[in-house]
Amino acid sequence: MTTDPAPSPSGVRSAQLEAQKTGASDTGAAQDVARRLEAILLVVDEPQGLVSLAAAVGAPVAAVRQAVETLVADYDGEAGGPRRGFELREVGGGWRLYVRAEHDDLVTEFVNAQAPSRLSQAALETLAVIAYKQPVSRGQVAQVRAVNVDSVVRTLTARGLVTEVGTDAETGAILYGTTDALLQNLGINAIEELPHISPLLDDGADGFESEAVR
Q1: Which terminus of the chain is more exposed, N or C, with fewer CB under 10 A?
Q2: Calpha distance 125→201 (Å, rounded)
């Protein structure tokens, strides 16, 4: 019976170095995915699914899933660092960065101090759409107003006039509704007390009459 010759010390050392290089390469790749994922998460307004995030950062879904788990642990202080004032949370099947609940009042106070006391015309129009069509997503509001409403909705949310009330079962989009603060500002007890909007709209009758005269 013959035995395989023992590897030479130089061969063992070469194998160890190769394994270290492979491990370092894998770690570097994982960190790169996490960094790119973090950059995307900082700018999204809606929760993003793993497939969407994977396409955005150009990485396999499995790698993105691992990166998400790493970031969650990092932000929660489970990786040896401090617990952050924000968290990476799964909502409606997607992932998005959120301010931690214990800092909501602080952030709202800061935003209100920075913002003018009066709402802009765009904010008032957006608030009206949300009030009458709630629960409604940002995309649906944008369709009504024919403009992007992301920043306006963020302002209304920060000022405590609208809030997230759920997610759309089909799209996963966040749905918004009005708050008690809006009712207090309007001096009503329930959203049903808002005036019916139909009588306020021009039914176009004048236009038809004008055409008939012509």
Answers
A1: N
A2: 14
Specify the pTM. Answer: 0.57
CA distances from 199 to 179, 195, 202 (A): 25, 9, 8
Instruction: Annotate the chain with DSSP letters as a single string.
Output: ---PPPPPHHHHHHHHHHHHHHHHHHHHHHHHHHHHHHHHHTT-SS-B-HHHHHHHHT--HHHHHHHHHHHHHHHTTTTSSPPPSEEEEEETTEEEEEE-GGGHHHHHHHHHHHS-SSPPHHHHHHHHHHHHH-SEEHHHHHHHHTS--HHHHHHHHHTTSEEEEEE-TTT-PEEEEE-HHHHHHHT-SSGGGSPPSGGGS--SHHHHHHHHH-
In this predicted model, what pLDDT tens digit does every residue of 47-89 receive, in sequence order?
899 999 999 999 999 999 999 999 999 999 998 899 999 999 9
Residue with token string 């950059």 = 39
Tell me which residue has tokens 């950062």.
57
